[in-house]
Specification:
With 110 residues, the protein is mainly α. The chain folds into two domains: 51 residues; 59 residues, no CATH class. The chain is 84% helix and 0% strand. Helix 1 runs antiparallel to helix 2 and helix 5 runs antiparallel to helix 6.
Length: 110
């Protein structure tokens, strides 16, 4: 039941962003997308599941690093999609972002 509730909440957020952007308000869609809704909702579910405080601390620290690295995607995609088609732009942007995340993960383990 908890998994279904989490899936519904996540689906509502995604549907809201897509619907707002399609109806001519990409700024509001981006605002919802940029809010840390997923993180906040995840923290609330974790709290009610009885997760230890140490896990919250570690999750928050790691989220900062991964969010900063993930920000590589947006300017790169915006630049590429204005020049190339959607799918190549998305693919290249994702590959570069995932490579950056992988490199960070490798250094994180040492």
């Amino acid at each position: 039941m908890e998994f279904i509730l989490k899936s519904i909440v996540g689906g509502i957020i995604i549907a809201s962003v897509v619907t707002l952007a399609q109806r001519g308000n990409p700024t509001l869609g981006a605002l919802i997308l940029g809010l840390p809704l997923t993180t906040v909702i995840s923290l609330i579910f974790m709290y009610y599941s009885g997760v230890d405080t140490i896990v919250f601390v570690e999750l928050s620290k790691q989220a900062i690093a991964f969010i900063i690295i993930s920000l590589v995607f947006f300017p790169l995609f915006a630049f590429l999609v204005s020049i190339y088609a959607f799918w190549p732009s998305l693919t290249v942007s994702m590959l570069i972002t995932m490579t950056s995340l992988y490199i960070y993960g490798v250094f994180l383990t040492y």
